[in-house]
Amino acid sequence: MTTIWKCIALSAALTMPFAAPAAHADDYPSHPIKLIVPYAPGGGADAVARIIAKRVSGTVGQPIVVENRGGAGSIIGTEDVHKADPDGYTLLLGQSGPISINPAVYKELPYDPEKDFAPITMTTAYPYILVVNAKLPAQTLQDFVAMVKAKPGEFNYGSTGVGSANQLVTELFSSKAGLKLVHVPYRGTALAVADLLAGQVTMVFADPVSALPHIKAGTLRALAVTSKARSAVAPDVPTLAESGYPGFEAIAWHGILAPAETPPPIIAKLHDQIVAALNDPATKALLEAQAMQTVGDTPEEFAAFIKQDIAVWKKVATQANLSVK
Questions:
Q1: At residue 206, what are phi and psi to the nearest 5 degrees?
Q2: What is the CA 278 to chain-centroid distance, rounded?
Q3: Are 152 and 211 members of one domain?
Q4: Are residues 81 and 187 in the same domain?
Q5: What is the pLDDT of residues 23-63, one digit of tens each?
Q6: For the chain, what is the domain count?
Q7: What is the pLDDT of the chain when averaged over all its residues?
C-alpha cells in the first residue's frame, strides 16, 4: 500500500467513529424509549413523567414507556440510567433529590450528577407543602410547632427515603424551629402520604400532586408552603417565611436527563420535542393544574442550574449537620 493510500485509510478509520453517532441520530428513535422514574408510582415525579411521556410519544413516533424504580433514596433508578447505554433509549426523570440533594448528604454515591448525565431540560418546578392529618389538633403551623415541642421525640415525619429532598427540607425546618421529630423513610411520597392519612406518621413535606387531592377532600391539612411566595393552587396557605421563619425557601424540580456521552444530535432532538410538549397548551394545563410551573430551559442552562443547586444544598446539609454513609 502506497503512503497516500495509507493516509486515506487512516483518515477513514479516524472519522468513522465520529460519523456513527450522527448517522444513528438520523433515525432516532427507531424503537421504544424507557423513561425511568426513581420513585414508586403515584407521586409528583410519576405524574410529570407520564404526562410528558404521553405527549412526546405522539410526536417522536415511538412509545415512551415509564418505569418506576424506587428505593434507596432514589439512588437505584438513577444509577440504572447512569449505567445504561448512551443511545437515547433510556432516560431519567431527574429531580432535585437524586441530582442535587444526594451529593450533599451522601458521602459516597454510585454516580456523579454532574459527570454521569447529560441534562436535556428542566421540565417543572414546585414548592413542598407541609401537611398533617386533618384530625390532628394543630390548626396552624404555630400550633404544630408548640405541640411537637411539648413532647420532643414523640412525633414523626415521613419522607421519600434517607437523604431525600423532603427529609432535608424537614430537617432544615426542624433545626430552625427547634423540633425533635423521628424520621420514617418510604419509597415514595404517595406511600408516605398514605401512612399520614392512616395516622402512622405526623407530618410530611409533600409535593402538590400527592397532597392537593387530600387537602381538597379535607383529609389532610396544609400548614405551610416552602416557596418564597404563596402558591397559586393553595393561596390561603401561608409560606414558612411569613409564618415565623424568614428567608426559608425550598423549591423542588423535575427534569429529563440522559446518560453521559449520549450523542448531542439525540440530546438536541429530545430537547426540542420535550420543550414543544411543555409549550403545548393542553400539556401545560395538565402540569399547571397540579401546581407545577413549566420551565423548558436549554441543556446548557439546565447543567449550570444543577451545578448551582448542588452547591446550595451542600451548604444546607452542612448547616443542618446531615450526612448519609
A1: -105, 160
A2: 16
A3: yes
A4: no
A5: 456 789 999 999 999 988 987 889 999 999 999 999 999 99
A6: 2
A7: 89
Q: What are phi and psi of 301, to 5 degrees?
A: -65, -40
Contact 261, 87 (CB under 8 A): no
Q: What residue numbers bound the domain in which 237 lies? A: 129-243
pLDDT tens readout for residues 115-140: 999 999 999 998 999 999 999 999 99
Contacts of 280 (CB under 8 A, 6+ apart): 55
**Lookup: cell for 280:** 403545548
Residue 153 makes CB contacts below 8 A (sequence gap 6+) with 180, 182
| pTM to 2 decimal places | 0.74
The gap from C-alpha 214 to its chain's centroid, in whole angstroms, comes to 21
Helix axes 3-26, 264-279, angle to 10 degrees: 20
- CATH code, domain carrying 271: 3.40.190.150
Question: Per-residue DSSP letters for 254-277?
Answer: EEEEEETT--HHHHHHHHHHHHHH
- CATH number, domain at 231? 3.40.190.10
Does residue 119 share a domain with residue 256? yes
Q: Is residue 14 in some structural domain? A: no
Q: Is residue 21 part of a domain?
A: no
